[in-house]
Structures are given as structure tokens and as C-alpha cells.
Automatic annotation (TrEMBL):
PANTHER family: GROUP II PYRIDOXAL-5-PHOSPHATE DECARBOXYLASE, MIP05841P. The modification N6-(pyridoxal phosphate)lysine is found at residue 296. This is Aminotransferase class V-fold PLP-dependent enzyme. The keyword Kinase does not apply. SUPFAM superfamilies: PLP-dependent transferases. One of its GO terms (biological process) is carboxylic acid metabolic process. The keyword Lyase applies. Its cofactor is pyridoxal 5'-phosphate. GO terms for cellular component: cytoplasm.
Amino acid sequence: MTLQSYPLEPTAQERAAVQQAVETYVQNFLTQLPTLPAFVDTPEKGAGLLESPLEETPIQIEEALGLLQREVDVPGINSASGGHLGYIPGGGLYYSGLGDYLAAVTNKYAGIFFSAPGAVRMENMLLRWMASLIGFPADAAGNLTSGGSIASLIALATARDAQKITSRIIPDAVVYTTAHAHHCLDKALRIAGLGECPVRHIPMDAQYRMQAEALESAIKEDKAAGLKPWLLIVSAGTTDVGAIDPLNELAQITREHGLWYHVDAAYGGFFALSPSGKPRLAGIEAADSVVMDPHKGLFIPYGLGAVLIKNRQQTAETHHYLANYMQDALSATEEASPADLSPELSKHFRGLRLWLPLKLHGVAAFRDALEEKLNLAQYAYQQLQQTAGFEAPVAPELSVVIFRYIPEAITDVNEFNQKLIKAVQQDGRVFLSSTLLDNNFMLRLAILSFRTHQETIDLALTILREKAAELEQELKG
Ligand SMILES: *Cc1c(COP(=O)(O)O)cnc(C)c1O
């Protein structure tokens, strides 16, 4: 008799019961969300999870959800909260969750056109839509990745091969960027074997944007010294302050000098959808490669980035592969297979978590939400400027507002602002993060959650005023 084993296939009744428990949990979470803190610092930090080790015998869904609630969902930043105003906030659209659920249950193999033609068509259609948003040609290569970091790696590996940067010339192959470029690009260079390329940090203007003339002089100087300038990495929305480098001017320089032009629009790219954001991104269409993160600018849950590369052929040359056991797939070439354009083979069918909310909400809802974020940033900036003691040195280009408090009492201003951010984080109703600008400790309001509205900003401003006054009072003793 053969061994038959069905315990991994719940009956219809069992499925319905577990599904009901999960759905109740989700509905409770969403109902309570507006009143839940944006940050919770527990002493155990989820360590209770380890007291329930993996065992031979099963537990009930109620117990599993209890563990999830106490040990996972409560401690740390509540990324689903509209009060998350730190780093670059994510989103977590409900329909994305349903898209993930459908993708996981049907488990289409979305890496290869032959195995899941509809799934690959869906992902490529989403990528062509993104290409059209930023003025890229419809035949640009694209890949839906786990996030901006892997998307950047794909872009820079392609750039390396397109520019024929081989090991012999790496020490002479110069990369240009600013000190505000995202650290994932340094990481990508290192992983792509380019860690020994000289990197020039081009000076920035008072709004923290790359100075085009300084770039041009640096390239000329390096050329005169016999080096090979090959890659320019710029930002369309820096993480620190949301600055957009002068994309058109920089495009001109890369064209003249034959550099690969990479635009990191992981945070800022989808503002191309909004009427006010679109003109600010002019020039992005001149890039050779662009990274943009739907898990930031399209409010999708974490786990979705995108890369677009004009040179489709080169992207495939860097990433394609041939394996004998895959030969059946070779004849199906109508649509490019994700596996030929990325380091991944098997992968999550990520397209569905973006397609479903775009279809069910319609694109206009996303456009409006993005426009609202830009308006909220202007609002927060004006309010901070009008509030005694606060200083907001840079008008926001996108949706990040940087500021600090200058206390009346004579004291270390950096130390005061460190205490201020601590106090706001301990309060927990909103979550803010900080950065250093020219050695000044600055606070940031990063407005990107689809759940952040004017009342959230008003609450953040109230808390900031309260905490600053309390700290000021302490100083005066
Ligand atoms: C978030 C971010 C990245 C990195 O993307 P991940 O999705 O976190 O991997 C790169 N660049 C910028 C400007 C970002 O904001």
C-alpha cells in the first residue's frame, strides 16, 4: 500500500474556519488602526515568539493570531499607520493583500512566459504603464523586484556591461553622485564587483541638489588625468530631504561625455502621476535606467520595487541564462520573461499586488492621493515656518519636510533636537525620524502614507510644539 498523506490539504470546512479567523483579525486591525500608536517600544521586542518553538504537533489559528498580534504586530513601527512619518513611509493597500493572497493560492510561476503567460503579460503591462509615466519607450526593459535595492543592482550590473567595465579598468572607472544618494547604490556597486571604482561626491546647492557645473568640471578633470568616467547616479527625490537633482542639465552632460545615466526615483518616481509632481521630474525620460518603488509611491505593501532600462538588449545580456532543463520554455518569446531580466528565477507573482488595487481603485485615486501628499508637505512647511522656535530651512520639493527647534535657552541645539525626537517617538502617536545636514541634527516629516491626512499633520505639529515646550521648560528649570 502506498503512503497517502493529506494533512497539508485542509477540507473546505477547515479552510472556511481559518479564513474567517484571519479575516476577523484583519478587520479588527483596520478598525482599530486610526487609534493605534505609530510606534511602540516594548522591552521584549517580540521575544515571546521564541517561547513558542516549532513543534511536531499543530496549534490552533487563534493561538497563532495571538502570537502574531502580541509579538509581531505591536512592537516597533506601525508601518500601516497614517502616523508613520519617518524614513520613507510605506503604505499597505488592502486590495494588495488580496492580490498577494490570490497569487499565493494559485501559485502561478511568474518568472517564465511559457509557464504563466497571463501573469507575465500582467507584470510587463504594469512595467509598460510605468515606462509611459516617465516618458520611457514602450520597449524599454523592466522588472518588478522585491524593492529598490535589488532594482538598483539590476540597473548598475547592466550599466557595467553596457559600458564594458571589466576588472582591468575598474580602478580607473569613475562614478559620480552626491553624498545624498541612497546607500543601496554603494551596496549595489560593491555587489556588482564595482567596489573599487573611484566615486566622486559632487557638491550640492543650498537645496541639496547636485551642482551641474561641478559635475562637468569633475568629469573633464578625470578625463584629462586619463581616467574613464562611466556612470552618473542621481536622485529624483533624496531620502534625506526629497531633493530632485537637475535632471535635464545632468542628462545633457552625460550625453556629451558618454556616461550611463541612472536616476534613483525609488521614492520620488510615482509623483510623475500627479499634476504638480510631473513637471518637477522633467528630464527623467533621458535616463538610461530608472528605479521606482511601488511600495513607496503607490502605497503597496513592502516587497515591490521596479527597474526600467532603455537598453533592453543589454539588460538581457547581463541577466539571461540557459539551462538544459528549461529548453521547453525557449520557443515562447512573445513577452520577455522576468527571469531573463533579473537575478531571480523562481519568484513571487508580484504583479497581482499592484494590478488589483490599480484596477479596483482606478488610477485617478492614486493621482489624487499623491497630489494630497505634496500639498500636505507644503502645509507642514508653512505651519513650521509660522511656529515660534521652529526652523525649516528648505522648501520641500516633494513630500519630505526637514526642520529643527532652536531653543531660547543657551544650550547645545543638536542635543536639544535629539531629545525632542526621542520624546516624540516615546509619545508614539506619530513616528518621525531624523537626519544630519551639515552637522546639524534635523527632524524630518516624510509624508507618503495614503492614510496620512491634514489631521495627522496637525497632530504631529501639536505633539512637536508640546514636547519642545516641555524640554524648554526643563532647561529653564
Ligand atoms: C527606499 C529608497 C531606496 C531603497 O529601496 P528599498 O525598496 O528600500 O530597497 C533607494 N533610494 C531611495 C531614494 C529610497 O528612498
